Amino acid sequence: MSQYFQLGLGHSPLSTGLRFLPWTLTPLLIAPAAGALADKIGSKPLMALGLAMQAAGLAWIALTATGTTGYGQFVAPLVLSGVGISMAIPTVPAAALNSVPQSDVGKASGVQGTLQRFGAVFGVAIVVAVFSANGHLSSAAGVVAGFRPALAAAASFSLAGALTALATARRRTPALAAPQQEARVLASAGR
Predict the structure, then answer these.
(1) Is the pTM for the entire model greater than 0.70?
(2) What residue numbers bound the domain in which 94 lies?
(3) Residue 54: which of 142, 162, 170 has the closest Cα?
């Protein structure tokens, strides 16, 4: 998106960064609330809804993006996408940690973090490949031609994530509630 704003639409790096604020500021506002809500209703609905919202926002941008699209047309989809990813950011690790016994929390955290990094790397590689197959960086028209299908691919990954979140079974072994479980075990043992 940075290349689209700079090379496709002609904005400076600073101007591009400022244009991203509706997207990048949302985690500061939404992620804490999503984390607190996930503690009450579970991570699965927030992961699914958040990733679906991100997919919708990215698809909206992909459909809207041309070489002359005004910034105002990007604000709503940037906010939608930003709110969506802000809902998923705190809930994915919580879901991973809450799905294993307390004794495996460290392993689950390591696996989740590693897979998140690998997913990001592979996602970027695929989006770049889609961009390269459809466009190039040597002209504004080439950037737009590659950007739209690349962002559509990113939206499809988000949608796949939302569907995967819906398909996961909910297992209640909350790692965060382990002290209460331990207290029950100690109480039943007469300690």
Answers:
(1) yes
(2) 2-188
(3) 162
